[in-house]
Amino acid sequence: MYDLIDRPVMQLAPGGRFMIWAIRGWIQSATRGTCPPGALAPAFARHGVLPALPHLHMMLVAFNRRATRQIAFSPLACNHIGDDEAVLLQLCRDAIGDPPRAHATLALLLEQESVGPAFSSLIATMGVLREGGLDAISLQQDGALGSR
């Protein structure tokens, strides 16, 4: 998680950029009073990961309604990854690489009754993204990154 905080979004691998866009787009749509899945569906379909959308939607609904504290998201146009966004990206990483850790993190962020459903949604989301080649939630490993 710490490797992602305050990094430029463009340094993320495609899966990370897609997740940042999807999370921020969901929040923007919900804030404007429009249907988040409806707003995001065309891009999910274009990337061949439309089946992930209902699962992501359910997870973000849990964060919106059942978080134990306020979670901050940056606007769509923001070029850097915020602290809470880095936590969610790490959750996505852990869903693939360390599911028990993802579950434990969700237990710190959500009311108890929401943890199980949010975890199931997270696992399902990342499974579909993996099938679509968008599961890499990491910094790109090219020579342009350098050290911080």
Note down, in words, how this protein is organized.
- The structure is a single chain.
- The protein has about 150 residues and is mainly alpha-helical.
- Helix content is about 60%, strand content about 0%.
- The chain contains six helices and no strands.
- Helix 4 packs antiparallel against helix 5 and helix 4 packs across helix 6.
Shape: globular
Helicity, as a percent range: 55-70%
Quick one: biggest sheet?
none
Radius of gyration, Cα only, in angstroms?
14 Å
The CA-CA distance between the termini, in Å, is: 15 Å
Short description:
The chain has 148 residues and is mainly α. Helices cover 61% and strands 0% of the residues.
Please tag this protein with its features.
globular, about 150 residues, disordered C terminus, mainly alpha
Layout of helices and strands:
Elements: H1 14-32, H2 36-46, H3 53-66, H4 83-97, H5 99-109, H6 112-131
Helix pairs in contact: 1-2, 3-6, 4-5, 4-6, 5-6
